[in-house]
Structures
1.
Amino acid sequence: MSLIGAGTAPDAAPGTASPALGTAHRAPGTAHSGPGTARRAPSGGDTLAVEAAGLVKSFGSTQAVTGVDLAVARGSIYGLLGPNGAGKTTTVRILATLLAPDGGRARVLGHDVVTDAAAVRRRVALAGQFATVDDDLTGWENLVLLGRLAGLARRAAKARAAGLLTAFGLEKSAARQVNTFSGGMRRRLDLATSIVVRADLFFLDEPTTGLDPASRAQVWEIIRSIAADGATVLLTTQYLDEADELADRIAVIDHGQVIAEGTTGELKASVGSGTLRIRLADPAHRPDAGRMLTRSLDVTVHTEADPAVLTARIPARPSARSASEHVASAITELARADIAVGEFALGQPSLDEVFLTLTGYRTPGSQEAPS
């Protein structure tokens, strides 16, 4: 079933209170495609769901966001990737109108987040890092309650709750109090509450933090379903594999600034043409091998926790010789020096390596080889 296509609130009476953020409904007069109909493609200036320039936010003497620029295309999954404390959540809270920026500007779905905040709230939904459901209610009761608060008629709210419980794999637990749910079940219910009624843009703040691999995979499928229905998804994550798996484009945030942005392929290409990993037959040769590789490849060579392993990022070179030819030549030099190589591989950098290169964070046990 369509996860988001059936949740508009045609039965809301005039003057009904606007729902809280996280149970978003449509703004009066905005067009939405009904269930099973094609979503209207944006045109011209409507192509961006989020536009932000120079966003700044401080809390006392702590600068949480120090000049964030973003451009998020409608209908895409956009990832904000960064370590804890990088400014991801603060950025999302500004865009969702929960915080006013100290500087800069931002427009969400064509509306200014400061001067037209109410219009933004009517068209977005937010699932924060922590579950916002009522522990004393059942999963069914939570969804029906939020549907009614959002303006759905009683029958429509019950139908929507039943559909969401099925779509999220919670129908067998619908009558249980939420305080008996596992972490993965609570997270799925929390996501379900954010789409009780239709939104054009979903902010998902670290949606899989603390979940086991099976629950993470289930949430990933839910996120893909939301995007497949035509909505825009902006998610924050500190999991590199999650960003790699889900996001059409990624902004890497560190110390409150966007330090890189692009598709996963573009980000990987930005740090070099490949990553070399060599396992020596004899770990005792590692110091000599490191020095030789540093000279022949003209790159920084790193040792790893494994005493026989050396790694290096191989940059794209303007010369006619390819990266693989440079590496083959270096391996030949090692052989001439009687340094046996057990195995080696030259591959595209992983997103982990991109992140480490851009932010300067190093993995445990990794250090520069002596030159």
Note: Residues 267 and 354 are 7 Å apart (CA to CA).
2.
Amino acid sequence: MKRLLAAALVVAFVGTASLAQAADKPNPTGTWKWSVTFGNQTREMTLKLKLAGDKLTGAMVRQGQETPIQDAKYKDGDLSFKIVFEANGRKMVIKKAGTVSGDTIKGKTEFERDGQTQSRDWEAKRVADPSGTWKWSTTFNGRTRETTLKLKLEGDKLTGAMVGRSGRETAIQDGKCKDGDVSFTVVRERNGQKMTTKFCGKVSDDTIKGKVEFERQGQAQSRDWEAKRVKE
């Protein structure tokens, strides 16, 4: 009996340790940003990465256009990939390699310039990305309703729509996102009256926490707001 109990404890411990190690394993999935200075001009670069198993995919976002990464590899926190794009009729190849540690990637960027291979340090920071589908519940007059919100982030521009019970979408207005802080307005008509609801909150992983502001009977009111990202 004692041996069985000891064996059970060992199995439980090993299983728990394995889960902890999996949780601690670096994951590059997310949106990453860094700045590049060239010719006295500084530009912010955006990279979207997604890890599925050991397969790494993603895209570099430039002026609203996405260029898929190629030859992507990832293992034990080390990643590498290349980006091929055209500029002024010339094909350019940029290779990146680095190590993921928390919300930072540190490594090197290699490219050709004037026929010479050059290398630069590369450090990217993960940013909170609200892109996706979010849901939360609201109780009013004893009735609970689930609300759905679709968001998409491009640079600092936040777009999206609130989905009604009938599936009708109402586009958000004045959408903004910076450093994980989101804000937007939803304007809808009900019974011939225009209703304006303002949302603001902070993105943390798969949760947005903040406030909702609206008018009721001529009085400005505020409520706590917490939305959960829907796993796709």
Note: The domain at 27-127 is CATH 2.40.128.30 (Lipocalin).
3.
Amino acid sequence: MARKIIAIDFDDVICDTSRAFLKFNAQKYKQPFPFYKVNKYYLNEVLNLDVAEEERRWNEFFSNPKFCYPKPRRELLPALILLKKEYKLHISTARSKGWHEQVRKWINTHLPGIFEKIIFCKNLKCIDKSKGPICMQRKYYALVDDNPEEIKSCLECGVKVIVFDQPWNRKIGKTIPRIKSFRELPKFL
């Protein structure tokens, strides 16, 4: 029997990207903002930046190795090793094309041999690039994600979704499985 495939988002699920970006933003632009108060998914809305300025700062952040490669949470690797024994693991990310190599480098540095594939959703040749239809098409058993829009997309497509708890997704219904650590994931699969 083939092992089921679990898709896992990269930014803010596998890698604490937004937390690192806020640290960068506070140091570089003297604009501190506590992570626990981030109540919206798009940081430009939280930091009162126009979209162009937010994109400029993200590009600057991603070009700065001091910030853009945060270390994974301590429990992540052991938890993923256990999951890999029962499931195939894929990364499913909306990261734009210019930063694909950075994702691969981070995965190869911190989690070598864990993921069988990295799916860059924005680059797929399909009309709807949201994760629900992509997960359904690829027959993923479940998706672990933090983005409220992607979670909604999966629910609308009938794809099992597990919410990775972040301040910006706390309003998502209590009936949807939610984890704060990958050690909790097996009980929802």
Note: The CA atoms of residues 144 and 175 lie 15 Å apart.
